[in-house]
Amino acid sequence: MSADEVFFKWSPAYSVNIKTIDDQHQELVNILNRLFVAVSKREGDKVIAGILDALMSYTQTHFTLEERLMRDAKYIDFEAHKHEHKKLLEQLDQLCKKHLLEEKPIYFEMLSFLKTWLKEHIQGVDTKYSQALQQAGFSVAAWEREASAEFALMSNSKKWWEVWKAA
Ligand SMILES: [Fe+2]
């Protein structure tokens, strides 16, 4: 695969039918694609560290918002889903440390792990909560209006996109 090819191509099949969540999932895919290009083109440790930082920060922001949605909607499998998020953050943190401290060539291993994880998570448990919420009659549209404002504030405080742009 050359660096000009798209590593993780977004497909409408990944939609969970909640725009705010879909947008964030697509942004995670964008960051993974950016990481793929940086690794393929050997853009250097500083650039890669910046992208990893953005990936970590955006993943945390996204999980926080998704967990807030499930909690607000009193979703029955909330705790189990939250646990999946926690596990991924720990794995991601380990992979980042492995790269940053030990400088092991783990990028491609990390990329394929994250791609598979994200795909399976979206099409599995994320789709499951989205369907459950909509079947229970939870007003996702009203929640989204409120959440969008909160998300803007969270993004502001994290400034993740500045790291992203610099990369
Ligand atoms: Fe999730």
UniProtKB/TrEMBL annotation:
Organism: mine drainage metagenome
Protein family membership: Belongs to the hemerythrin family.
A GO MF label: metal ion binding
Domain Hemerythrin-like: 18-130
Classification via Pfam families: Hemerythrin
InterPro entries: Haemerythrin_Fe_BS (IPR016131), Hemerythrin (IPR050669), Hemerythrin-like (IPR012312), Hemerythrin-like_sf (IPR035938), Hemerythrin_metal-bd (IPR012827)
Record keywords: Iron, Metal-binding
Gene3D superfamilies per UniProt: Hemerythrin-like (1.20.120.50)
This protein's name: Bacteriohemerythrin
Keyword Transport listed: no
